[in-house]
Amino acid sequence: MPRDAAQSGSVSRENAEHYRWGDDCDGWHLVKDESLSVIEEFIPSGASEVRHYHRKAQQFFYILSGEVMMEVEGRTTLLRAGTGIRVLPGARHQISNPSSSAARFLVISQPPSHGDRFTE
Q1: Residue 39 maps to which CATH number?
Q2: Angle in degrees, CA 86, 53, 93, rounded to 5
Q3: How many domains does one find in the chain?
Q4: What is the pTM for the complete model shown?
Q5: Domain contains 112
Q6: Which domain holds residue 48?
Q7: 74 in a structural domain
Q8: Which residues contact 87 (CB under 8 A, 6 or more apart)?
Q9: Per-residue pLDDT tens for 69-112?
């Protein structure tokens, strides 16, 4: 099992493993093991990810601040702070931030989605 900051005490963006994605987007692995992933992500105004799907992982996106558009299988939903959406395995999806301010959100994946990402 990979060792993460949560196994040795509290976890935050300051001590979590960081990575970059998309155009100027950031992610922090808050929980990273073989059965569960919890990531905090930052998406600036105007940014988006590539439409994709996961064969095994289900995901739950929960907006902490700002707002984003989530497209799942052709249906677009505006998600504001304090709301979330579940994405089941096999569902094609894409998150974007068309608003004028940045957004932060949690991505909870079970099992972890890294290595299980497929683009169109």
Answers
A1: 2.60.120.10
A2: 55
A3: 1
A4: 0.91
A5: no
A6: 17-100
A7: yes
A8: 54, 58, 59, 60, 61, 70, 72, 93
A9: 999 999 999 999 999 999 999 999 999 999 999 999 999 999 99
